[in-house]
UniProtKB/TrEMBL annotation:
Record key words, sorted: Ligase
Organism of origin: Streptomyces solicathayae
EC identifiers of the protein: 6.5.1.1
Family according to the record: Belongs to the ATP-dependent DNA ligase family.
Gene Ontology molecular function terms on file: DNA ligase (ATP) activity
Domain ATP-dependent DNA ligase family profile, chain residue ranges per copy: 114-227
Protein name: DNA ligase (ATP)
Pfam families: DNA_ligase_A_C, DNA_ligase_A_M
PROSITE patterns: DNA_LIGASE_A1, DNA_LIGASE_A3
UniProt cross-references to NCBIfam families, sorted A to Z: PRK08224.1
């Protein structure tokens, strides 16, 4: 390749804010794999957020990008997979597989899409120092006639439209809005944009914890919710405690510790087959690698309130935030019914915006 912006490139990032700021360009926040695509004639490289290539995991996108992108360009965007009219992050993560045959089977079964939202280079010209408003105009011109599975991300400068997208698009699996200053140059790996995500709370059962990498202090609390059958399902973790609080939690939770874990709802977590019929902590995955997945079992008797943005199926999509203990709530009262369900919205309507 011989492009004015060469791989690897880490994408420009966003910092979280509470409200949609005025006077900016607004886009939906896609829930997929961030990807920067370099194309130079017949050669395509798809780079991940960390700069590592994703090219081999999405062969169908390589074939789709070649006839749909300009001959020589660098495009920032998101790889997503659609299922039943909404984004499906779980099907996306299945692609990160060492076996090429498995990757190609999944590519045929659940083909991915690429949503383009920024242009870093075109032809022999780098656009890194070009203001966003001009880059957007160049992107729209370059992708004027683009066809699925490559899409031009909808964008607006109207904050009322952005607010409507924030409410509606969650039903299609998107998770908020991105706001970008109109005069913003492209700065890799810098948090110069703004993200506005949904904020919700839930009361959950604390049924275990993992140690922090720094030593024998709490790293994260393991959270559960009861399903309709009365089974406690692992729904995620909450973390981000101060060092002092991590130490305090070990002592605070000691009286609930179960060692051995016989009788705990998740006692079978080391049995790989047990993960097929229930959500248990410690499920092996391609993401965990050799990471220590062991955890300390606690009697599921304490309830805490956590903040979360949205669900991915029956679990929290991201790490939850600890709010407070809820001694007034019984563990048995912490079920899925308390969770807010966004109104369904067809992903096709998002692409048509």
């Amino acid at each position: 390749m011989d492009l004015p912006v060469m791989p690897p490139v880490k994408p420009m990032l966003a910092k979280a804010v509470k409200r949609i700021p005025p006077g900016m360009q607004y886009e939906a926040k896609w829930d997929g794999f961030r990807a920067i695509v370099h194309r130079d004639g017949p050669d395509v490289v798809i780079g991940s957020r960390t700069g590592k290539p994703l090219t081999r995991y999405f062969p169908e996108l390589v074939a789709a990008l070649l006839p749909r992108l300009p001959e020589r360009c660098v495009v920032d965007g998101e790889i997503v997979i659609e299922h039943d009219g909404r984004l499906d992050f779980d099907r996306l993560t299945e692609r990160i597989h060492p076996a090429d045959s498995r990757v190609r089977t999944l590519a045929e079964r659940n083909p991915a899409r690429f949503v383009a939202f920024d242009l870093l280079a075109l032809g022999d010209v780098s656009l890194l120092d070009t203001p966003l408003s001009e880059r957007r105009a160049e992107l729209e011109a370059a992708l004027r006639d683009v066809a699925p599975p490559v899409h031009l991300a909808p964008a607006t400068t109207d904050p009322e439209v952005a607010a409507r997208w924030f409410e509606q698009y969650e039903g299609a699996g998107l998770d908020g809005v991105i706001a970008k200053p109109l005069d913003l140059p492209y700065r890799p790996d810098a948090r110069l944009m703004y993200k506005i995500k949904h904020e919700r709370t839930a009361d959950v059962v604390v049924a275990g914890y993992r140690f922090h990498k720094s030593g024998p202090v709490v790293g994260s609390l393991l959270l559960g919710l009861y399903d309709d059958s009365g089974a406690l399902q692992h729904v995620g973790v909450c973390a981000a405690f101060t060092a002092k609080r991590r130490e305090e939690l070990v002592a605070e939770l000691e009286q609930l510790r179960m060692d051995p874990a016989d009788g705990h709802p998740w006692a079978a977590w080391t049995d790989e087959s047990a993960h097929e019929g229930a959500r248990l902590p410690g499920a092996p995955s391609r993401w965990s690698g050799k990471k220590d997945l062991s955890w300390v079992a606690l009697r599921p008797e304490r309830v805490c309130e956590v903040g979360y943005d949205h669900m991915e199926g029956d679990r929290f999509r991201h790490t939850a935030q600890f709010k407070r203990w809820r001694p007034d709530r019984s563990p048995e009262s912490c079920g899925y019914a308390q969770l807010e369900e966004p109104v369904s919205y067809d992903l096709a309507e998002v692409f048509a915006s």
